[in-house]
């Protein structure tokens, strides 16, 4: 094979790679969520674990949200034709038993509507699955579009 034939093959491969990259960009637009968790309580919220069904951190969540403040973080898709779906748990520090926990979930799928959840629950010695908190409440507002804004508010009842 001549040097000219090799150069032509390399150029054709580069053009094919560029075309595939362009197609990928059209088919797989970014999905992301900017998340704000507002702590409207006199207690610290401590991260107690997070996970993703799809995607991952773009900018990780704070490990602690001080009283009367907020944490801002972002998540995004990490694969071809996927969205971003995940959650984070917080434990309320400084309250007597039972354990108080806040669950925050986001979902910005590749196909379908965006959604989320915010739940405040408590766990006593015999509460394996927990029950709704009688001291805290969690509310959420979920944005729309490929890159959305979700806001979660944690308050005393």
TrEMBL record:
This is Allene oxide cyclase barrel-like domain-containing protein. It comes from the Bacteria.
